[in-house]
């Protein structure tokens, strides 16, 4: 049932309170991380929001990323407040990080009335390549007797 819910869930919203205090509490390079979650059939997704920006971000900009398991390919959108941008592969594909270092100016994504930031993920398309090792047939199963001669044939 949870996997079916995960397949159907393509919109995720995370509301962060006391937004006005975030840049003081999180230096550049320090993220606020969501709990891992499942969406669009992909397990183990996580939102990473850097109120003071990731390393190399422009002054006053925040950074926003989606961390995905290896082998995940996504076409998705990230939103912070009223700012919405397509999530690009960040750094290199092996890290499974989608998003932007200079997502938007921090003050543009804060709702001043509620002192919150609404972070969203909208997944348009998702693919995960599963890598499972192949196993040799155990010796015990190789030695099974043949079916009886009078067994029905498929």
Task: Give your account of this protein's structure.
There is one protein chain. With 154 residues, this protein is mostly beta strands. It has 4 helices and 9 strands, in the order H-E-H-E-E-E-E-E-E-E-H-E-H. Strand 6 and strand 7 form a beta hairpin. The longest helix has 7 residues. The radius of gyration is 22 Å and the shape is elongated.
Give me a quick take on this structure.
With 154 residues, the protein is mainly β. It is 12% helix and 41% strand.
Q: Compute the CA-based radius of gyration.
A: 22 Å
Head-to-tail CA distance between termini: 33 Å
- SS element count, helices: 4
Reported for the largest beta sheet, the result is:
5 strands, antiparallel
**What is the residue-averaged pLDDT?**
83
Question: What is the helical fraction, as a range of percent?
Answer: 10-25%
Write a concise keyword list for the protein shown above.
mainly beta; single chain; 4 helices; 154 residues; 9 strands; disordered N terminus; 5-stranded antiparallel β-sheet; 4-stranded antiparallel β-sheet
List the helices and strands and how they pair.
Blueprint: H1 2-8, E1 11-17, H2 22-25, E2 32-33, E3 37-39, E4 42-50, E5 61-67, E6 72-80, E7 83-86, E8 97-105, H3 106-109, E9 116-128, H4 139-142
């Amino acid at each position: 049932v949870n996997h079916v819910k995960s397949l159907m869930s393509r919109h995720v919203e995370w509301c962060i309170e006391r937004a006005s205090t975030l840049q003081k509490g999180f230096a550049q390079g320090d993220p606020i991380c969501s709990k891992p979650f499942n969406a669009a059939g992909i397990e183990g997704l996580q939102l990473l929001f850097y109120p003071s920006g990731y390393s190399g971000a422009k002054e006053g900009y925040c950074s926003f990323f989606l961390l995905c398991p290896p082998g995940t390919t996504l076409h998705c959108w990230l939103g912070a407040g009223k700012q919405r941008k397509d999530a690009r592969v960040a750094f290199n594909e092996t890290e499974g990080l989608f998003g932007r270092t200079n997502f938007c100016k921090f003050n543009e994504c804060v709702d001043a009335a509620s002192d919150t930031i609404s972070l969203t993920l909208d997944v348009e398309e998702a693919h995960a390549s599963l890598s499972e090792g192949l196993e040799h047939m155990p010796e015990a199963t190789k030695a099974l007797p043949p079916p009886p001669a009078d067994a029905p044939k498929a």
